[in-house]
Amino acid sequence: MVDPLNFQTQLNGKKVELFHLINGTGLSCQVCNYGARLISLNAPDRHGKVVDLVLGYESLQEYIMHPEQYFGATIGRYANRISGGRIKIHDEEFQLTTNWNGHQIHGGNKGFNKAVWDVVGHSQNEVKMRHASPDGEEGFPGNLLIDLSYRLSEQNELHISFEASSDRDTHFNCTNHSYFNLSGEGSGLIGDHVLKLNSTEFTAIDESQLPTGEILSVRNSPFDFTSARAIQDSYASQNAQFLRGNGYDHNFVIEGEGLRFAAEMHDPKSGRTMKVFATEPGIQFYGGNSLDAGIKGKGGKTYGPRSAFCLETQHFPDSPNQPSFPSTLLSAQKPYRSETIFQFSVSS
Predict the structure, then answer these.
(1) What is the pLDDT of residues 24-43, one digit of tens each?
(2) CATH number at residue 171
(3) Is the pTM of this model over 0.90?
(4) How far lies 211's CA from each of 8, 109, 217, 251, 295, in Å?
(5) N or C: which end of the chain has fewer CB within 10 A?
C-alpha cells in the first residue's frame, strides 16, 4: 500500500486524494482522483500472501513527471489510436491534437489521465468520480460529462463502470490502463502467465501500428488464445503482425454481446487467476513490450520490457476512420454506458 500523504495536495485548484477500498474477502485497492487511476490492487496468493498486482509509483509527483506509461489511468476521450488525429462527424471534419508520430493516442496531450476528477461519493468499497471535458478539448466537439465508479464486490471483483453524455455528437472510447503482474508488481517477467481470450479474430495493424481495417482470424497464428497457453510460447514468432507490434499490442474482437467473459490470465507461480468481463466489443492485449527498463516504480523496483500486461476493454482503435468497425459515435440523444469486471481467484 502506498502512503496517502504522498498524494494529498492541491493541483490546478482542485484537491487530490487517495482512497482505500476494501471488501470482506481479502481484496483491497487504492484509487486516486488524479487521472481517476488505480494506484494499487492487493490480492492473496495460494498461501494467503497478499501483494500489489499493478505497476505504478508511490507519489503523485512521480505520476505527473512520468505520464507516458499511463499507469492505472482512465483513458479518454479516445483510448488507443486515431490516424492523423482526424475524425469526421456528419460530414464535418475535426482535427484533433496529435501526440504520437503525427497521430493521436489515448486522448491527446491532456487526456483524462491528467485531469483531477471531482469525487462525488465514497464508501468502504466504492468511490465515484465525475469529470467535465469542455467542447473543443484536444479538438473533440461537445461538452462531455463522464461519471466513473470503482467498486469492490464480495466476490473478489473490481467493477469499473463508465457513464457519459455529450451535448453534441462526438466520438468517445474510454478504458482503464492498468498494468498487471499476477506474481506481484516488479517481480519479474510475465511470459509464463497463461492467457485465454474469448476471441477468434483481431484487428490487423500496419507498420505504424495503426489499423488497416482488416479483421483477421487468430487461427494458426500467435494470436490464437482460444485455448489457454503461456504468453511466451510465441515470443520467437516471425508472424508479420506480431513483429509490427513488437510483440503483443493488438485489439481482439470479443465474441458475443452485453456483459460477457472476455479474458482469463493465470499465474502458475502464485496460483492467482484474473478473469475479465466486459460490455465493450474489443480488448487490447498489450504484453508490456516497450516498458522502459529504466523505470523505477514502487519501492524502487525496476519495471522492464514484458514485466507486466494490459487487458484494456474498449472499442477498436481508429474506429472513426474505419467504417467496418463498431461505431464510437456518442449521440447527444443517447448516453454511453460500459462496465468492466476484473475477477480474482486462487488455485492450489
Answers:
(1) 999 999 999 999 999 999 99
(2) 2.70.98.10
(3) yes
(4) 40, 21, 15, 9, 29
(5) C
